[in-house]
Protein 1
Amino acid sequence: MPVTTDTDTDTDTHTDTDTTVDAVVIGGGAAGLNGALMLARSRRSVVVIDGGTPRNAPADGVHGLLGQEGVPPAELLRRGREEVRGYGGKVVAGEVISAVPADPSADPSAGPTAEGDPRFTVTLADGSALRARRLLIATGLRDVLPDVPGLAQHWGHGVVHCPYCHGWEVRDEPIGILAVGPASVHHALLFRQLTDDLVYFTRGTGPDEETRARFAARGIRVVDTPVAAVESGQDGGIAGVRLADGQFVPRRVVAVATVMRARTEGLAGLDLPMEDLPGGMGRHFATGMAGTTPVRGVWVAGNATDPTAQVGASAAAGALAGAHINADLATADTDAALAAARRVTL
């Protein structure tokens, strides 16, 4: 699951399995860390479980994030972990293999609890377990590329998917769009803003005549011949696209819309609702305002629920979810204190 650890020493340990923390955050990317930051600054005990596989690991820099333009993804996350720790939060390296609701009455460290104040048990691959009052799921997503030989090896460099994340860096290059469905038409128009040399490989998607006319008006060349492979050049970058008839189309960049699937490993026990993206382009967690879910005590933030969110939007969603979790805990704390006070007076 989740996100980043630069070195073996850039992690905390969490061995106190007898204590229930206010929140466990599953995922150490922008959404998870910013949610944890909000909770830690509110004096909540919070543990982030970080699986060390961020979606944007292949990228050279984060873009479109005010004040952090171009910062390497690993550096941004290193700073984030440091900030969370600065307020008392913990960041633990590990993979979640199970997250399930637990019985609040079986929590020996709970003390007086409000009715309906939930508990969860989170188990890691190393066999350790944590107990939590609330969960923030920020596992991110996995990008699935088309099965085109030579494509995957250039992912994050010569192969890009987002004109806002990578567009400036590939401006004025010969770009090829590998179509995967209707979404690729819009994709092409966005990348046309960045280069005058754009080729649209239809790959059997069959754009209609109106689409072809719009492409022609913008100087976008359409190639209907099936794609056989993406080929590398002597410099290690992309040299071009080889077609099924042997023709070679020189390209330096290939843009493709990926299938985006939320990372759900270890989370089946929470029974969180899922939604499909249109056109078979992926699957994500279904959430309400601020990442709420129908499962009491569980929030979801970032790409796991909003596949198109860039780093800034994911971080903002994490912060909002963290604030809502703190408010929910404050209500539960007050309910428990009131119930305890009334028992004393009886």
Protein 2
Amino acid sequence: MMASADFDPWCPRFAADPYPGYARLRATSRAHWFAPSRQWLIPHYADVRALLRDRRLGRTYLHRFTHEEFGRTPPPAAHEPFHVLNGNGLLDLEAPDHTRIRRLVSKAFTPRTVEELAPAVARLARELVDGLLADGGGDLIGALAEPLPVAVIAEMLGIPPADRGLLRPWSADICGMYELNPGEETARRAVRASLDFSAYLGELIAHRRSHPGDDLISTLITAHDEGDRLTEQELISTCVLLLNAGHEATVNTIGNGWWALFRHPDQLAALRAEPALLPQAVEELMRYDTPLQLFERWVLDDIEIDGTLIPRGSEVALLFGSANHDPARFRHPDRLDLTRTDNPHLSFGAGIHYCLGAPLARVELIAAFGELLRRAPRLRLVSEPERKPGFVLRGLKGLLVACA
């Protein structure tokens, strides 16, 4: 089945509300060929969930094939700094390297670590909300959604406070390459950010080797298991991934979530009346307006979906946003229901690439929403927000609010 007007990620109107288009995709087929990005779109929850766990697919193919063997053109040599950085991180590796690195990183990213961070996250959220209240309101994205997760992951990594302003611009430029069909200017910015970020981390890692501290970089330097250690490039790539993945989804969930609450005042009132709903409300907000709309996988061995052969060498785009609105899995999926308990959304992925930082993201989201709900009971929207131009990473440019 060919996807046409039902999927147009570069159209502002579609990007503003892709969910009706997803419904039409689900109604017509389980797999749609999308020629502009040369991908198969997979819109149904059951298929997305199954393919996330299917070892016939991978985030990379280079552990089994060369570019030529896989029928793909190698990326331009000028883009190499981005691909070296990206290709050595957990997100774009497969076994055995993925298994080895995730095992090492997990030793430094335990539930106990997250539990110990919770008071600091709550304190930081409180301080940021203090600032918003003192100003009588402002941009919720710039005042809370961005600085909270950036500060948390930077603190974990041991990045000095004076340097943290560098991180968000580098991350934004690198993440531009995750959009569909990024242009040459996007690639140029991503390459520059990759070089600058790598050089910065290389110097910081060298300093931590001789002056270890109580931080994640120092822990990763010494992490080992049965003789395995992270290489220098793996260490740099892991730190970049932890920073980028450690805040992008949280920023977008806070922005998307408050925008959804403002559009559903009955749900916002119910949450204010019953704060104990907050943990499941956070899950529902992640499902309702998914911060990562799609996740790409390469087909390493032929697969078949509903009679459609998808051959080796193909790429599939697993539509998380569509899966999270599939009526075959979610009752009244287009309804924001903060009391929803049966909510196995896919916003954190599934399988071996399930988000390592999901427990920390939940702590941050509960702190951010909870602090505003408690201390800004009359928080209101000032003007309708503008969405960021990207589609894959779904978020707002800003969200202007008033506190009284």
